[in-house]
Specification:
With about 270 residues, the protein is of the alpha+beta class. It has two domains: about 140 residues, no CATH class; about 110 residues, 2-Layer Sandwich (N Utilization Substance Protein A, Chain:P, domain 4), CATH 3.30.1480. The strands form three sheets. A seven-stranded mixed barrel has the order 1-2-5-6-9-8-7. Helix 4 crosses helix 8.
Length: about 270
């Protein structure tokens, strides 16, 4: 049985508006994803509200995989502190997630007959960091081994390349899909040079200092990590100094995720 929720927002004026999310609505999944989205958007809660709620009146079949619903409908109600209500008939949902643009918070309410009470929340700073960083799990012990989070969306090569061009600038990129998984891998194409003078050239001696041997004029492909599943690889690339040497953003996943999410949701 799917775990359902309404994802809504309020401007702090006592009213809220939201859309339906049909699957994976536990805090372990939807809650975690909303926190990650805020971080990826650099703390821009208004942009999250736009791409997740106001621009998607049909709601979501699964927010995490960017799969829109057919006609989930729009829901409205009142909210005051730790209590929220629905204007009309209470939907067959388990949770209500409310993003508060006024106090930069995310509150999660348990949907029940009558007023809904918030049972957990977090607050975002200006850069999108959440306090606390995680919400308590809503998975029952018996569900823990049965319910799996949805897989991260599989983006097309065209979408990934377009996001790279938009966010990282007009450099040379390649994208190819894994034959087994269908996941698109993104690469930056550079040339090793003894005396770099072009945007696509990287100092051969500095590459050697990182343990990457290349001669003047060699063409090299380096992965650009954009999937949240690849956070470990992105961290390793950053720690060895390769991310900076290639002139990429310190956190390529955080840089590219907003463009990918917005393009997929629109």
């Amino acid at each position: 049985m799917s775990t359902r929720a309404v994802i809504g927002y309020t401007k702090g004026d006592g009213r809220w508006r939201g859309v339906w999310n049909h699957e994976d609505s536990h805090t372990d999944y939807l809650g975690r994803d909303l926190i990650d989205r805020v971080a990826a958007l650099g703390g821009d809660l208004a942009e999250l509200v736009r791409v997740a709620i106001t621009d998607v009146p049909e709601g979501w079949s699964n927010f995490y995989t960017c799969k829109k619903g057919e006609d989930g409908g729009t829901w409205t109600g009142t909210c005051s502190g730790e209590t929220a209500t629905f204007d009309d008939e209470i939907p067959d949902a388990h949770f209500l997630y409310l993003i508060n643009l006024a106090d930069r918070s995310l509150r999660v309410f348990e949907v029940d007959d009558g007023p809904c009470d918030a049972f957990t929340s977090c607050v975002f700073d200006a850069k999108g960091r959440a306090t606390p960083e995680e919400l308590p799990s809503t998975l029952d012990d018996e569900d823990d081994g049965d319910v799996e989070a949805a897989e991260e969306p599989t983006y097309t090569a065209e979408l990934v390349l377009a996001a790279a061009e938009k966010v990282l600038g007009p450099r040379t990129y390649e994208a190819s899909a894994d034959d087994d998984t269908g996941v698109v891998h993104l690469f930056l194409v550079v040339c090793a040079a003894d005396s770099p003078s072009a945007p696509n050239e990287v100092n051969a001696a500095k590459l050697s200092g990182l343990g990457i041997e290349a001669d003047d004029g060699d063409e090299l492909l380096f992965p650009i990590y954009y999937r949240r599943d690849d956070a470990g690889h992105a961290h390793d690339q950053r720690q060895m100094g390769l991310t900076a040497l290639l002139g990429l953003p310190e956190d390529t996943i955080a840089a590219l995720q907003p463009a990918l999410f917005a393009a997929t949701a629109n």
